[in-house]
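Full entry
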Amino acid sequence: MKNVKCLLVAGLILFVGNTSAESRRQKVGIFGTEVQFTPFGHDDDYSLNSLKFRYFMTDKDALRLKIGFGVESLKYEDDEFGGNLEKGRLGDLSVDLGYERHFKVAKRLSLYAGVQVGVYKHFASAKVEYTEDLGNGSHTYQVVYKNCVPTSEGNVGERAHVGVAASVFTGLDFYVYKGLYLGTEVGIYVMSTKTNQTELKYSDKVIKGTDTYRAVICNAIKPMVRLGWTF
């Protein structure tokens, strides 16, 4: 039995050795697609947050298209919010176009670095039911928040905005077998954003916000886990 186990291990080693030379598939004309996960995302949730497509112009140079997305449902504790939150959503959508330069580290391992630019949209909306005590009774009404969500006091809180961004990044690709690979990526980005006009609607009244503002944000890209395939 022990000899059989030794033969199996030896065979596995020979198999990996024979396939490792063809495991790294980064050649001119190769197309790749991958999903990207953020293990340390919002509230430490492990969530899928983007798709990436890659095309190798040469054995070392690749163009990339990245589409990012995410949706979060709002929740309030009963003692923190003055109304009944019927519906609340925060969302994000981004489209980035970039360039990667690849460096062979080993037969199965590739290091790359690059730059990208893109556009970004942050969504925010909510629908809340409030009950007002009038002394001799109560009055219930609904408020629709557009391009914003309420604070725990019912005021305008987080707002929707649009932006443009540029980033630099570096990452690793480890080819498990032929075109299948695992990887990670980190980087930094600079983004210029502008808030959208807010709107509160209740009964027959509409209150539109008059203030919009711009902001410049510089931050690190959270480490991500990537699973991809080249063909």
Summary: The mean pLDDT is 82. Helices lie at 2-20. The domain at 30-230 is CATH 2.40.160 (Porin).
